[in-house]
Amino acid sequence: MPATAAPRSATVVAGRYRLLDQVGSGGMGSVWRATDVRTGRDVALKVLGRHGSALLARFVREQAVRVRHPHVVAPHGWAAEDDLVVLAMELVPGGSVADLLREHGPLDAGTAALLVEQLLMGLAAVHGAGLVHRDVKPANLLLEATGDGPPHLRLGDFGVAAPIADRRFTTVPGAIGTDGYMAPEQARGAPPEPTQDLYAVGRVALELVTGLPPSRQGEVPSHPLRPLLERLLVTDPEQRIATVEAALRLLRRLPVPPPDPPPVPDRLGPRPRPRRRRTSRTARTADGAGGVDWLGWLAVAALTGVVLGCLHLLLGWSA
After folding, report:
1. Which phi and psi angles does 174 have, rounded to 5°?
2. Cα separation values, 316 from 80, 149, 238, 249, 268, Å
3. Alpha carbons 265 and 267: distance in angstroms, whole number
4. Largest CA distance in the chain
């Protein structure tokens, strides 16, 4: 399949999203700052790259997630037009925890505890919705641009999220997740379980306090968060701390000093000046409220058929 043509700024996708500037890239494609022309608000738009079956499966999986929580950023709409397929979500301009660690190294105990608490609160909403994230890592922990104020973390990227204990999302002997952050049983292809996300929280927390990625991490050092880390990083899932709520209770009992966080700047910079609008052609859109607009549906019937077919056959769940 040929590569999808790269979008350009000022392109309007599906008559809904006007691309402003590219702000990132990843395994699924590129990420753009865009304006929702219906609401006038800026959003983050994930633009899919090559439309292979695996990528479309990730798209279907991610667009079905409708978790609303202050510490979660999930898609609130999607659109397809000709060879462009996009996911829309809130714009989070402060970069990621990976950026913070790369620039500042290990964080003080209070800041590490605050970020872990916010991550656990976000995961509580995800698990409460019956999902396992399966890819908790610093690059997927986005930060609001709070300047010199306390950091505000938001869990993102639900491309490999799956219903709890759903064997349709298990690949044996392969594994779904990121090496180093996956729980041992997850790496062996076990069905999705919330305790796998909790193991990843332990790896992330150890990275926050040591500045070291999992490949270089050793024993848990003497630290105010040590009692929590030891419970999260248990190899046997039956002995690991069982729920997000239990992890939060333990964390909040620990004698942690007040946070002294590094600043979190706006990493996106000023909004670019709008350019002349490129007209929309043939499109389909959908938003979190379930509304669908059809514009010239015949030209995209094949693409949307694949998407909806994947949703029906592979997932069997949506918002």
Report:
1. -75, 180
2. 21, 42, 28, 34, 37
3. 6
4. 63
- Res 82: pLDDT: 80
Is CATH 3.50.50.60 the right assignment for the domain spanning 12-91+269-315?
Answer: no
Contact 80, 91 (CB under 8 A): no
What is residue 286's predicted lDDT score, i.e. its pLDDT?
65
- Looking at the chain, how many residues does it have? 319
Q: What letter represents residue 167's amino acid?
A: R
| Helix intervals (H) in the chain | 53-63, 97-104, 109-128, 184-187, 194-210, 226-232, 244-253, 301-310
Quick check: 217 and 206 in contact, CB under 8 A?
yes
Residue among 257, 145, 250, 259 at smallest CA distance from 202: 250
Which CATH class for the 97-253 domain?
A: mainly alpha
CA distance 82 to 132: 32
- 21: how many CB neighbours lie within 10 A of its CB? 12
Number of other CB atoms surrounding residue 38 within 10 Å: 13
**Structure token digits, residue 276:** 């002349």
Tokens of 176: 């779904």
Averages of pLDDT over runs of 10 residues in the chain (319 residues) are 57 91 82 94 87 72 87 91 88 97 98 98 97 97 97 95 76 76 96 97 98 96 98 97 98 98 95 64 54 34 46 44
Q: Is 137 annotated as contributing to ligand binding?
A: no
Domain range annotation of the chain: 12-91+269-315, 97-253
Give start and end residues of each alpha helix (H) in 129-243.
Answer: 184-187, 194-210, 226-232
Hunting for tokens 């105010």 — which residue is that? 224
Instruction: Give the whole-angstrom CA distance, residue 79 versus residue 82.
Output: 10
- The residues annotated as belonging to the active site are 135
